[in-house]
Amino acid sequence: MLLDTASLYFRAYFGVPDSVRAPDGTPVNAVRGLLDFIARLVQDHRPDELVACMDADWRPAWRVELIPSYKAHRVAEEHAEGPDEEETPDTLAPQVPVIEAVLDALGIARVGAEGYEADDVIGTLAGRARGPVDIVTGDRDLYQLVDDARRVRVLYPVKGVGTLQATDEALLREKYGVTGAQYVDFAVLRGDPSDGLPGVPGIGEKTAAQLIAEFGDLAGILAAAADPVARLTPARRRRLDESRAYLAVAPTVVRVAGDIPLPAFDPALPREPRDPAALVDLSERWGLRSPLNRLLETLGVHAPGPA
Q1: For position 52, what pLDDT does the model report?
Q2: φ, ψ for residue 153, nearest 5 deg
Q3: What is the CA radius of gyration of the chain?
Q4: What's the CA angle centered on 288, arms 282 and 292, to 5 degrees?
């Protein structure tokens, strides 16, 4: 099971009231919500391995170089060296280091790679996996990894993590008219304002799926646009021609990297906390006893007590 961790803690932040606070009054709704998410996922799906995939760089320079608008509207502060700072709610940003510290103390694998997003970590780990893979994310971009033959599916939270849409090839075909392998071309054509991807003007989901069904893939669509006898309306042909510069680079931006260098880590679910003393300190400092006990009980791990 691969967690798109930022996607999940953002959902937890907005799904759990900010009245959930530490003893000193600091909001911990994202922390508690994420811990409960993980407990529910482990309880319902019983994964053999679990990896919390992290954004070491949420807006990699190599993607921005190709499409400068990529996530540009979400930049809070630009940095000449290192990743730009993402616009994050004031009471969420301080919770992220707490989330990281709690995962580390628990012994849940937390993996990121410099210069890459969590999506790229997920793509690499899904590609390396020998057995079935469940990807838990609220980001539809990861539908591109759905592959029935390799038993890779996406669990998309519809309401919390109690109601998950199990996304396989059949659902993609039913909902979007494309397969996992076609999803990158589909997303490129359609665009995605939330990621600053313009798409091709006048081509929405239905038209993108129709073009892919008729011409196979983006290369086939562009070949048809250059072929005067191909069955394309003049308006679509013109829009595709005018978008060739974008279409030449967008697939590289949208496609998750599949073979990035990752640090060594142990993906096995913890049989005991990695750092019991730190876990006790974090539990008391941030008022996390109840969600931590629920998660530890689900894992079958004895909760450590105060020293």
Answers
A1: 98
A2: -135, 165
A3: 21
A4: 95
